[in-house]
């Protein structure tokens, strides 16, 4: 019996072209437990998105194994909801229709039920009253809320988020982080979250995997123990600042190693 929701064992991803063979991921081992929030943090090009795409089933590992609930993962599935940096909503559909679109394969669900669920999840992401507007009438933050509702409506055990707040301004980004804290408490989903942002990773996560480049690999794992009832002010607390120091030191050391090896 596998106690983890997701287990990655010795994952390698090598991109081969005529010109070169490039190791984007080198021997990645990680786990995500049930109702656990796990972040991948690291510099550009360390393979964060490549790993998330493997878990989403959008790409295959060159070697190693990826298991979810004990079954091999090799294609997209309804047990994983994905949110990318670009919201990719369908512009000709209303907000609720964009969310309900994720339920299109639910042959046994009536249209009214799909609409009701879409309304419920829009309410969860703070968009009550905005169900009947088009993406072009929404701000970036609102569009990303719709994209999150669309990922959540299928009630996936695992939510995959690739820099979901990267395109938002600083205040909207903070609001969205708080929204995610609330959603995480209310749903039973686990989350795999990709970010460049050290504060965001500490604030949201139970565990942070710090990655390094060339080849893309896990350099350090840090378990985060902050209160479940956190709000933004925890970012000023001593434990938070200590985690931040530890992570920044690791990232600084990585930079030093790169310079020394040149
Ligand atoms: N299809 C591909 N073919 C060849 N190389 C690729 C491919 N996809 C990704 N790579 C390379 O793999 C490495 C990791 O890319 P990836 O996008 O996963 O990094 P990342 O950590 O998500 O970066 P960023 O934070 O900038 O988005 C990069 O050097 C990239 O050029």
From TrEMBL:
CDD domains reported in the protein's UniProt record: ABC_NrtD_SsuB_transporters
Record InterPro entries: AAA+_ATPase, ABC_transporter-like_ATP-bd, ABC_transporter-like_CS, ABC_transporter_ATP-bind, P-loop_NTPase
ABC transporter domain ranges (all copies): 6-238
Keywords from the named record: ATP-binding, Nucleotide-binding, Transport
Claim: ATP-binding is one of the keywords in the record: yes
Cited SMART domains: AAA
Any GO MF annotation of the entry: ATP hydrolysis activity
A Pfam family reported for this protein in Swiss-Prot or TrEMBL: ABC_tran
Name of this chain's protein: NitT/TauT family transport system ATP-binding protein
